[in-house]
Amino acid sequence: MSTAELPIAPLGLGRAALPRIVGSPVERIDAVEKVTGRAVYAADSRLPRMLHGAVVRSPHACARIISIDTSRAERLPGVHTVVTGADTARVKWGAFRPDLYPLAIGRVRYVGDEVAAVAARDPETARRAAELIHVEYEVLPAVLSLDEALAEGAPLVHDDAPGNVAHEFGFDRGGVEAWFDRSDVVVEGTWQSERQWHGSIETIGCTAEWTRDRVSLWVNTQTPFLARQRYATALGLPLRAVRVVQTEVGGGFGGKSGDDNTSVICALLARRAGRPVQLVNTREEEFLASRPRIPMRYTVRLGFTEDGLVTAKDIEVVADNGAYTGKAQAVLGAATVRHDALFNYRAVRAHSRLIYTNLEPTGAFRGFGNPSADWAVGQAWDLAAARLGIDVPDLFLLNAVESGSVSPHNHKITSCELKQCIRRAAQAIGWQAKRAERTPHRGLAMGVSVHVSGRRSFGDYDGSSAIVRLTEDGRATVIVGEGEIGTGARTTLAQIAAAELGIPVADVSVPRPDTDLTTHALGALASRVTYVAGNAVQRAAQQACERLLDAAARQLDRPAAQLWVEDGTVHGPAGPDGEGPVSAPVGAVVRAELYRPGGEPIVGLGSFDNPSEFPDGSRYGNESGAYNFVAEAAEVEVDPATGAVRVLELAAVADCGTVLNPPLAEGQVEGAIAQGLGMALTERFHWQEGAPVRPNFSDYKLPTAGVMPKLHIGFADSYEPTGPFGAKGVGEIALDPVPSIIASAVADAVGVRVHELPITAEKIYWGMRNGEPGAAVPVTSAPAVPAVQDPSPPAGADRAGQEGDPR
Amino acid sequence: MTDTTTHRPGDTAAGGHRTAPATQCAAQPGTAPGTAPRAGTSTAVPLRFRLNGEDVEVHVQDPAAPLLDVLRHDLGLTGTKSGCAIGYCGACTVIVDGAAVPSCLQMAGLVEGRDVRTVEGLEGPGGLDPVQEAFVARAGLQCGFCTPGHVMALRALLDADPEPDEERIREVVDGNYCRCTGYVKILDSAREAVARQKTAPTTEEER
Ligand code: FES
Ligand code: FES
User: Fold this and answer.
1) CATH 1.10.150.120 domain position(s) in chain B
2) Are A551 and A543 in contact (CB under 8 A)?
3) B5 pLDDT above the threshold of 60
4) A251, A488, A663 ranked by CB distance to B179: nearest
């Protein structure tokens, strides 16, 4: 029996019993408004006298703007205003490296770059007017790929970025070369990921309205408070002049985290028009000018002892930033170090560069770079298992981290059930049986990933704060600025509050974030809301409950310590002098406390800052207070005639600590797997002159119900001591290993290992026919090099702790 | 305008903007609350059809405009969503004379005299439609943006065939994108809807 098949011991963690609401399939608090069409998304907002905007975009990858003639557009009936770069504050903005103007000034840098915008009485008129704006360009040489951007003497995308390098860092922790020297087996290869678009069915949109010198923006943003900061900068305004309100968000996945110009342009139009303006991306614009996943090229070298213990890992990463930076440099940071918290590496070295190109800017997408990292590093592990003659799950188990492990970057692993996940995923897919009886053209593979629960990267703070207000009708309002992008965060936070307060979830409301009204919060990113905001809400609810019981103690004449709340009623025991048990509805207690002379509203405050460290320039530092894990295994079938891949079954077991709401957690895993399959198999465009050809769903294929494999979803028995009721994040983790697993399963099925995503039938077809054309090569000639061969060290990889912007 | 009297986008409590009465639209095209005036209203042509069980008349500038735009902009029915505008995603699905159609491809002028149902018309006096109930019960939604389209596609299916087999259910769900759920719980919801449809009191006359 292999180690993967060993029985799983029950944990017996000696946890406190959890409240009944925790772990139960509570109905989403927003379900009814969504199934009835009443939920108000960005494009559903309506303000009196509201105009509609449209944007003029560059048709060139790189050009100088000679002149802009807006006169014909302005004369079109129904047009209210036109704005160009001249009407802006001429301030560059960006999360980390300010390099983006709200509207181009002097130069355009990619096909889709915003040049001018129009506001008119309806969307059609605005679009027609946009077509009437004449921009004269002098087309300049562009760099349309990583290789072109890196070439000697290449044109510069930004004059202040020599060599087109937007960001660079590296480290050598533990001395990799010495460890490679002591390794028995070394594998090496290069793998390249591709732009992947978020494909939220709702596109990015905003409605803006000015009152005197202050603008209110109703935006479908994941991160209202962080977005506000950036929009204020872009508009040249003080923070207090910008208010952001979150509308319903029709899917985010990182794409609505405030790195694009849409809201800024909307605000500019509304100011000049003196009327509210709504600006919503078309699907084409969303494909041309959002911030898709960063294509990354990884060259990976891994060393092992002959028994299969991992020794050293060396990676060289080159990432395609596109024309502007956004969050890409933070993504690159995560994608360089995160996966080192999976296995017990003795030494790790990296050299990572973010390279400007004249292509669509890239940025945050669910997984935050880790799907690209896990695809490349996962492929190297798969090759190593074959070279070592050790079955993949066993190799993983031999090297996996555990609770108490500390990564080379000081990631401190508190709770970790990675080994349990590996064993259970193997069992769920029937690993042993499928290995024993191989079916032709079918392949089996496993992958593992680690993710954070919040990540310290926007300054030295990854916290959240919450106010829980009890109302005189016996309800609770949870005031917290995190918001909802579809994951069910508001429901989960309501559950946590309800569990602490002893009232039904149906009696808890969680209003949408409004920077004027709700508490400060970083928002829905980095799988942080359940863990970080959950802790803040739990504390606020505890304090509200204490205050409620203090008031009830006075009203009911019992010591507060003897009171408890159940189903919305405060209960107390019999009194010392023979009085019977007492009780009062929560609402009555709140009301009596308010109406008492000198009485006060009953509110509780809570805050929580992730117990993590702000990483230094070399990315040393514990990114998060809690790490989540997943193991996934898949079986695929490859059609030998065409190379077409069908994923038959996929098993995923995630360690996200306590599962607060099983259907919601399953939904995160299922949805993440679907996106991972899209990234692995179908999602890409054909490109022409720096732009995607036909940028719509006609050519960009999202997974449909028909291509989904049979899924086996499970959760590890796990408890995170620092999490709310033991919970950790789960929003992204299940996407991360999917591309690697599919690639390995295809290699297992037909002996072809693809080195460039997506893994198309065409690449496999040519791979099966021994190369030509395409990036696939047969496994037999895969670049696994013997240890004796000494590959030349990657340029600049030996710079331990090199300076760089910390993120 | 002040915050107390004006509906703010995102403020779901004040949602009075969304169902502009059809008569008002007919009398004053483009001036109903929350409705953007359309270009060249002087040349607008009247369009009459049955919408969610009521006869409506709306003046449209361009009869070739997509029904989706007329529903959302002229009639204020924003429950029907736009995801691609080229007929691929299914977010805009409505029912025209019993058939699920992408309203982004449906020319508005061609629904003259026909029967159109949108997600706003599903809820009856007895509460949610069984399909809607099923999505609530089986967590068949996350962001919810694709949900009206899925719900309408399944409503059309169940109207045509109250007991569809698994293959038929999959076929229908396969026609609409969802970027959030991975479809597992949408398929669960669809099966649940079939089950609920069997036990639900028939409300043909309501529909
Ligand atoms: S909007 Fe009609 S199918 Fe996408
Ligand atoms: S629930 Fe978000 S697209 Fe389906």
Assistant:
1) 130-201
2) no
3) no
4) A251
Helix (H) or strand (E) holding B137: helix B130-137
| Cα–Cα distance, A719 to A714 (Å, whole number) | 15
Q: What angle in degrees, to the nearest 10, is found between the helix axes of B184-199 and A662-677?
A: 130
For chains A and B, count residue pairs whose Cβ atoms are closer than 8 Å. 229
CATH number at residue A536: 3.30.365.10
The C-alpha atoms of residue A537 and residue A562 are separated, in whole angstroms, by 24
CB B125 within 8 A of CB B207: no
Count of C-beta atoms within a 10 Å radius of residue A668? 29
Q: Which of B1, B10, B76 is opposite residue A245, by nearest beta carbon?
A: B10
| pLDDT tens by residue, B58-116 | 999 899 999 999 999 999 999 999 999 999 999 999 999 999 999 999 999 999 999 99
Distance CA A780, CA A647 (A): 23
> pLDDT for A156-205, tens place per residue?
999 999 999 999 999 999 999 999 999 999 999 999 999 999 999 999 99
The C-alpha atoms of residue A333 and residue A97 are separated, in whole angstroms, by: 14
Using a CB-CB cut-off of 8 Å, the residues of chain B touching A78 are: 39
CA–CA distance, A624 with A630 (Å, rounded to integer):
17
In a domain, A542, yes or no: yes
Distance from the Cα of A709 to chain B's closest Cα (Å) equals: 10
For domain B45-119, which CATH number applies: 2.30.42.10, 3.10.20.30, 3.40.50.300, 1.20.1530.20?
A: 3.10.20.30
- Binned at pLDDT 50, 70 and 90, residue B188 comes out as very high
Q: Which residues contact A42 (CB under 8 A, 6 or more apart)?
A: A202, A204, A205, A206, A207, A218, A219, A220, A247, A248, A249, A250, A278, A280, B9
Counting beta carbons within 10 angstroms of the beta carbon of residue A600, is it exposed (0 to 12), middle (13 to 18) or buried (19 or more)? exposed
Q: Which helix (H) or strand (E) holds A207?
A: strand A205-211
For residue A200, give the ligand 2 atom closest to its CA. 3
Query: What burial class does residue B43 get, using C-beta atoms within 10 Å of its C-beta: 0-12 exposed, 13-18 middle, 19+ buried?
Result: exposed
Helices (H) and strands (E) in chain A, counts: 19, 30
Residue-wise DSSP of A463-507: EEEEEEEE-TTS-EEEEES---SSS-HHHHHHHHHHHHHTS-GGG
The first and second tokens of residue A378, run together, are: 């996962």
Tokens of A338: 């995160």
Nearest-Cα distance to chain B for A315, in Å, is: 32
Q: Which CATH class is domain B130-201?
A: mainly alpha
Q: What is the pLDDT of residues A25-54, one digit of tens each?
A: 999 999 999 999 999 999 999 999 999 999
ipTM of the complex: 0.93
Closest CA to A360 of A102, A165, A110: A110
Please give the full DSSP string across A627-681, using - where no structure is assigned. EEEEEEEEEEEE-TTT--EEEEEEEEEEE-BS-SSHHHHHHHHHHHHHHHHIIII
Q: What is the pTM of this model?
A: 0.92
Cβ–ligand 1 contact at B91 (below 6 Å): yes
Atom index in ligand 1 nearest the CA of residue B82 equals 1
Q: Which of A26, A28, A34 to mutate to test the interface with B (most CBs of B within 10 A)?
A: A34
pLDDT of residue A16: 61
**Pick from A87-101, A594-608, A777-791, B71-85: least confident:** A777-791
A343 within some domain: no
Where b means 16+ CB within 10 Å and e means fewer, A487-521 reads: bbbbbbbbbbbbbbbbbebebbbbbbbbbeebbeb
CA–CA distance, A99 with A107 (Å, rounded to integer): 12
Cβ–ligand 1 distance for B92 under 6 Å, the answer yes
From CA A424, how far away is CA A422, in angstroms rounded?
6
Supply the pLDDT for residue A770: 77
